[in-house]
Amino acid sequence: MKHWMIFMGTGGIAVLGGLFALFNPASAVATTATITGLALLVVGALQAYSAYRSPSLQTRAGAGVLAVLAIFMGLTLTFGPFGDGSLVRLLLGLLLLGSGAAKVWSVRHLQRDQIFLPVLIAGAVSAVLGLIILTGFPGFLANALGIVLAIELLSVGAFMISLALRRKRTEDPA
User: Fold this and answer.
1) Where do the structural domains in the chain lie, given as residue ranges?
2) Which residues 6+ apart lie within 8 Å of 94 measured at CB?
3) Between helices 3-22 and 29-53, what is the axis angle to 10°?
4) E strand or H helix at 122
5) What pTM value is reported for the model?
């Protein structure tokens, strides 16, 4: 299996999970959070595998940290929060902020590449959502957790699909 296919699969699963969570507003937040948690578990596992297969230590470390955070958030959302939920809020905010920073960092040297703008926007969306959650925007997390998680999964999916298409182009030159 080529490396770009892992990115494409991860992005596809994230987009499907995000769309399902976004277009399921009638469900309770718990259902949306559980579905998003399961999607985060799969994305985290695939990202961990991708980190394992990465050639450089810097890429491996960054992807590994995000994979661990995604898996922990997936477990927390699937099986329920630990404690009073403030840990979930803190970790979710840090995950989103870290995810946004990692996206922006990863694309910093590709300013003339086609994926620059989509990845930059995905990173900015993740970082802004993370900051909103960390600052405790009044009532935002309680009323919009499912939507926040859906938007993040869509952002992660767009990022991973953009990377997959770029890797495919470099791995399979036509």
Assistant:
1) 3-171
2) 69, 130, 134
3) 170
4) helix 116-135
5) 0.66
